[in-house]
Amino acid sequence: MNISITRSQLFFTIIKTQIGIGLLSLPSETQSSAKGDAWISVLVAGCLIQLLLLIYWALFRRFPNDTLRQMIMRMFGSYLGKGLNLIYYAFFIMIAGYACTLYVRLIQDWMLPLTPTWVLLLLIIATGMYLAVENLRVIARFFVLSSVMFIILLLLSLLTFSNEIHISNIMPVGHSGAGQILHGVRQTFFSMLGFEVILVFFSQVDGRPRGLLRISSFSNIMVTLFYAYFVLICLINFNSKALEQVNEPVLFLFKGFTNQLFDGLDLIFLTIWIIPMTATIISYLSMAGYSLAASQSTYRVIVRISGILVYIIGMYLTTVENLDPFSTWLESGYLLMIAVIPLLMWLMSFVIKNSGNRGAA
């Protein structure tokens, strides 16, 4: 599939995949360990993600013309390569199923408590599949157009500064200690998942390697600051006890804001937020397709099959009362797939003949 996208389209693809439901609960989760320094944990997590982006960039410099699927086949051989690609495929649809479950629970808690689970799952996945079956360029264009939603969300967030704020909640800076801040980094890191989209789409972006590193780094900076900003405004609006009792403090932040012009700002925010959440599903369905498919026709079949599997996973997970064990298992697998294996592949690349070079760095 020789469909290429521009560097700016890659930028918005990364952002739209990374920013999703994790933001809504992140302030309470990170604050539970890092307290008023939770925003520092977000910045440190962004630095760790940047290190992974450097590994991805170094890997694709070694094999600039290969997709992730092709590199795996080259390095691990036919049998092991096919097996590992299949594992990546399963990994992507498991994340999509888990994300769908979280989305459904959020929508039922805040907006549609009487709507059956199977209906919400069907709407979310069907919407994601509708766009995911298209080629990467079409998907990227949608992400670019829908990114205006982030501007709207930022403008809405400014209204919250009319509430009573307490700067003392984050003072003095660093009072939680390095250990607690690092513990908050772990929670933040998994709320910012989605940057691994670069692994799948990097080779299909026009431009030289250095330019691609620059644009992926810039997207990481933007996402990190976006998350840190919302964590910070929650910290100065809620005390630590309130954050411990609230599952989605970002929504509660807007719920408490009402005036003559705006009412139910939390529902307005959530309605807009459905678009970024759906974009995440689209990305993971697309990554699942690209992890196995060698042609556009095969890709579309795989995406459709993936949508059915994601629906089954979502239906199962919605029956599970506590998702913590599954979340812990998924986090361990996530570290393996997006950190350990790419690092291993980069080290292996030094003993495998380079197949070419897209351009000088």
How would you characterize this protein structure?
The chain has 361 residues and is mainly α. The chain has a single domain, classed as Amino acid/polyamine transporter I. The chain contains 15 helices and no strands. Helix 1 crosses helix 6, helix 2 runs antiparallel to helix 8 and helix 3 packs parallel to helix 15. The protein starts with 6 loop residues before the first helix and ends in a 13-residue tail after the last helix.
Summary keywords:
361 residues, mainly alpha, Amino acid/polyamine transporter I, 0% strand, disordered C terminus
Write the layout of secondary structure elements.
Elements: H1 7-18, H2 22-34, H3 38-62, H4 68-110, H5 117-132, H6 136-146, H7 148-158, H8 178-191, H9 197-201, H10 209-235, H11 240-245, H12 249-255, H13 265-290, H14 296-317, H15 324-348
The whole-angstrom Rg is: 20 Å
Helix content: over 70%
Structural class comes to: mainly alpha
Order of helices and strands: HHHHHHHHHHHHHHH
Main beta-sheet strand count, sense and barrel state: none
Low-confidence stretches: 354-361
Strand content: under 5%
